[in-house]
Specification:
Layout (H helix, E strand, L loop, with lengths): L1 H15 L5 H8 L3 H6 L3 H16 L6 H36 L5
Helix pairs in contact: 1-4, 1-5, 4-5
Length: 104
């Protein structure tokens, strides 16, 4: 479970914060409300990455217990995505200023 959470948070950072995809993110933000909100909300990013990781790593069944695990995993990763953004963004900016190497 911890591995899946770390994987979801890593994917969230890689897709939504890492400089490699900055051009794509900026382009998509101009394409509509949905992309602008998704690409600007760490909570939403964590939720959708968490759901993707859960679907990729768990078997799919249509039971209430499975649906509860699915949604709870999404909300846990959403919350952790928001916390990690609040904690790490200032640290990343400080690192970028000191080293001159852009990460975002």
């Amino acid at each position: 479970m911890i591995y899946a959470i770390l994987l979801a948070l890593s994917i969230r950072f890689f897709l939504f914060d890492f400089i490699l995809f900055k051009g794509i993110r900026e382009y998509l933000k101009t394409k509509g409300y949905f992309f602008r909100k998704l690409l600007g909300c760490p909570f939403c990013q964590g939720f959708w990455c968490g759901l993707g990781v859960f679907l990729a790593s768990q078997s799919i069944s249509m039971h209430w217990q499975h649906l509860a695990k699915f949604l709870s995993f999404g909300f846990v990763t959403a919350y952790l995505g928001l916390i990690s953004a609040a904690v790490f963004y200032p640290l990343i900016q400080k690192y970028e200023q000191k080293s001159g190497i852009p990460l975002q």
